[in-house]
Predict the structure.
Amino acid sequence: MAVTIQQIAKEAGVSRGTVDRALNGRGRIKPEVAENIRRIAAELGYVPKHPKTAGQGNSDRPLRIGVVTQLCRSSFMLQINQGIADAKKKLAKRGIEILLEENETVDEDEQLASIRRLEETGIDGLAIMPVDSDGIRTKLQQLTRNDLPVITFNTDIVGTGRRCFVGLDNRKSGQTAAGLMGLMTQEQGKILVITGYFSNRTGSLRVDGFVEELKRSFPQMELVGVQSSFDQSKEVEDILVHALEAFPDLAGVFVASGGQAGVRRAFERVQPKKRPYVILYDRTPRNEEQLRDRVADFVIDQEGYEQGSRAVLMLADLLQNHKLPEKEYCYTEISIKTRYNLT
């Protein structure tokens, strides 16, 4: 007689639903519980009604993982794209296809169109850098309710049923930047913050963490503004030029998102008597040059390569081996770079 899910549930001391989630990689379940259930199922000789060959999405095609990114032309995407590309090569050997949709903006409609194209092609899982909007939230809720596993990376969105988030603890990284700024300025002076899009959750969390820590630990420092650059270097340049003209004694600049090449051009235009201290994000070729040329003092790197690679590989393990993420938030290291530790 065939072994049933009910028998496995009784032996494991769990519900039938828990057994189903463990054997099919659905929902959240403790790794040790899932492992025990799979062990019992193997010992009892359980055979699923519709077995899938490892690396096979259905009877006529391999497993497919959809990947959706945003701001694909930004320099910080270089590392993320390389991580995705290397993961794609590894998974090809396991019979898993990666279908990549690159979005140029943080526009909801552009991202929804990418998700729909992947759905029409046919995917078994989705790794996405989500736009934080109601439309994307609703769409991801629909996918997860239909048992399509979703992992977010680099940017996150709550209330969607996604399995986990892979990326930087952005609030904590903003606090880290504030701590660095306080040390450099000796807890004195005027500080300017430049972000990309106010609607971008990643940048907003960095700014929130920075401002919170500034107020808590360095109350004598003065925040002169938080301005949006739309990730454009010309906007960063103009914002910084106007700030330097209004505040010749500007002590520090924190750029929480893209367009950071504008910092150099602003200093070239204004040529301040004393350059304000500068903290940037992401280890890109241009930011490395700014460190070496002493245009910037610190770069906070979010390990983009690890984000792109790990998100895709975790999704592959979930689909192929029913290996659930060990935790909901898989944070990458907050790496601090100076001109002295660039290798």
In short: The chain is about 45% helix and 20% strand.
